Each structure stands twice: as C-alpha cells, then as structure tokens.
Amino acid sequence: MNRDPVKGLQMRTYDQLASAQPPYSAWDIFGRDDELGTINLLTPERVAAAAQLVRTGRRFSLDYPVNAFQPFPTAPRPATRHQVFELGEFARDDWLDSFYLQSTSQIDGLRHIGHPVYGFYNGLSAADNSGASTRLGIHNWAESGIAGRGVLLDVVRFFAEQGREYDREATVLLDATTLDEIAAAQGVEWHGGDMLLLRTGWAESYLSKTEPQRVDFSYRAKSPGLARREAVVRWLWDKQIALVASDTPAVEAQPVLESDFRAPGRLQSGSVILHQPLIALLGMAMGELWNLEDLAADCAQDGRYDFFLTAKPLNIPGGVGSPPNAMAFK
Ligand code: UVW
Asked: Which of 50, 137, 176, 185 would bridge 231 by S-S if both were Cys, CB 3.0 to 4.6 A apart?
C-alpha cells in the first residue's frame, strides 16, 4: 500500500468533532474503512518537506535494545529469548522465543486500546478484535511506512532551565499550557502532521537501576507524561500531531490523579486513560519507551528541535504493537 491518503480529507477542529459519530471521533475524517488513523496526516508533500530537514547527516536510533527494560515495569511482559544456532561451521541463523512486542521501545497499534462505549477505532468490536482477524493491525503502518517531521520537546531541560522543580520519577502532569511553554522556549513552530517526541528522562532513570531496585520501583506511582485532560487531546488533534511518543511506559502521566472526561458521550471519569480517546476515537499513533537521549543532547547543542523521523514497525499481520525501528536524521 502506498497511497496518498489525505487527498480530499476535510479536517475539522477538535471542537467541531463534537457532532461526529461517535462524538469527538475522527472516524469520518479518515473514512470508516480506514486502518491508518493519524498516519494519514503524513502526506507525500509533508514527507518530502520533512526530508529537507536532513542537513548534517547525523542520525539517531530511537529504539532501546530488546530486553532493556527487564523486568518490565508493567505487568507481565516477559523477556525475549534469543537463540543463535549453527547452520554449518561458517553459517549462523537465529530466532526469538517469547518475543513480547510491547516489552521494549514500541508503537501501539490501533488494536491496542478500545473505548469502553464505542469499541476500537472505526467501530471494531471487542469480540472481533482477536487473533482471528487482522483488522487495524500494525502491518498497516509497516506497509504505509511512517516518515515525516519529528519535533522533540525536552521536558527535562525545560524544567532545569526554568529553575523549576522536576522529578523524572514523579507524576509530573504535562498539560497543554506546559507543552506550549516548552515549544516556545525551544522556538518550535508546528507545521501539521508533526510527530511529537516528549523527553521526560524516565527511561534513563529506570535503566540506571539495578534489578532489585527495578523490582522495588513502583512505576505506576511515578511517571511524568501528558495530563489526562481533554485540553491535551484537543491540543494534539488541533496541531494535527500524527504520532506522539515518549520515553515513558505510557506517554501519559501515571497514575491517573484526575481526569476531566466527564461529559455525556465522552469517557467516564475514573476509568479514563488518555489512550482511549487518542487511539480509539482519533486513531492516533502512540510510541512508548523510545530512546530520546542522544537526540535530545544534539537538539540542545544545535538549538534545532525538528528533524526527519522515520519508523518502520514489523510487518506482522494483525499485530497489536511493535518495536518502532525509529530513526531521526538531522
Ligand atoms: C497503557 O495502555 C497505559 O500503556 P501500554 O500502552 O504500555 O499498554
């Protein structure tokens, strides 16, 4: 599949999506048979423009190694076993056992999280979201490819430079105002179809721990990230963010301290995770546990926070998620 999916697309603001069915969904924006979601926003024109951001040839891998996060900080995502065997004296092959596709840097596909009222993206029911079907699988993004303008917001540096208290193991809520403040401090402007990378420092903090320290560490009590507020969903949609990724296990701050999804037709407070409106209603691509350290250092050094970004999930028909195989180029 190599289509120009945005041709003829009638974008609407988040508030205009109030009259959509379901409310605040993008199902009629991208089409009821769509399986790409916000990756549709990566038009050929935007990809070509983003490629112009490659000026020095510096490149950055954004994936941590398989098994880097063992024991995995969320419930049960076991270690992958890597087997190398001799085909002959001078030939080797290998395979993976128990390759849990969300156990290291990952992209969440559109089958990952559904809405408690409306089901999965574009109306896929919970009953139909099974191994018997490939609908909304990660293979769609493997085949379309993911490429475009990446923008890094460096939360850690912003707080340090502002002299504001910041704990990368705390529930720091990044609301729309804070995102705007960081973007302004970095001189970032939004182009539409951007892929947003949020560096919080969480992954490096977890990786610096010994195994017993990791076991002790209750990640759910302590993770910076997007605030679970409708204003954040509006901010992401109205900026036409094609993908949002961070170096945390969930992109959104954990645990849920409060959420303002209370209105009828929206999500009920208490059960809300940001994944639900983002993935199920808006079809937004989300990435977790990405390695943003070297890229962030380079951005701080040259003062340029945008770059060409590519990701190529594994082509697993019906896959729920995948390591992103993400690269940034400057
Ligand atoms: C959540 O769904 C909150 O996290 P993950 O995508 O890692 O399952």
From this structure: 176
Tell me, what amino acid is at 58? R
What is the per-residue pLDDT for 268? 46
The pTM score is 0.94
- Quick: pLDDT tens for 84-119: 999 999 999 999 999 999 999 999 999 999 998 899
- Take residue 202 and report the two structure tokens written for it: 């969480």
Average pLDDT, stretch 208-215? 91
Nearest CA, atom 5, ligand 1: 250
Assign 311 a pLDDT band (cuts: 50, 70, 90): very high
| 74 close to ligand 1 (CB < 6 Angstrom) | yes
Name the nearest CA neighbour of 174 among 206, 190, 197, 194.
Answer: 197
Q: Tell me how far apart the alpha carbons of residues 290 and 301 are, in angstroms, rounded to a whole number.
A: 20
Measure 162 CA to ligand 1 centroid, in angstroms. Answer: 30
Q: Which residue stretches of the chain are H helix? A: 27-30, 44-51, 139-144, 155-162, 176-186, 202-207, 211-216, 230-238, 275, 293-302
User: Residue 7's pLDDT is what?
Assistant: 58
Q: How far is the CA of 54 from the centre of ligand 1 (A)?
A: 32
Report the alpha-carbon distance of residue 240 to residue 284 in Å, rounded: 10
Q: Give the nearest ligand 1 atom to 113 CA.
A: 2
Centre of ligand 1 from the C-alpha of residue 33, in Å = 25
94 to 46, 83, 91, 158: CA distances (angstroms):
38, 5, 11, 43
- CA 200 to centroid of ligand 1, rounded, Å: 17
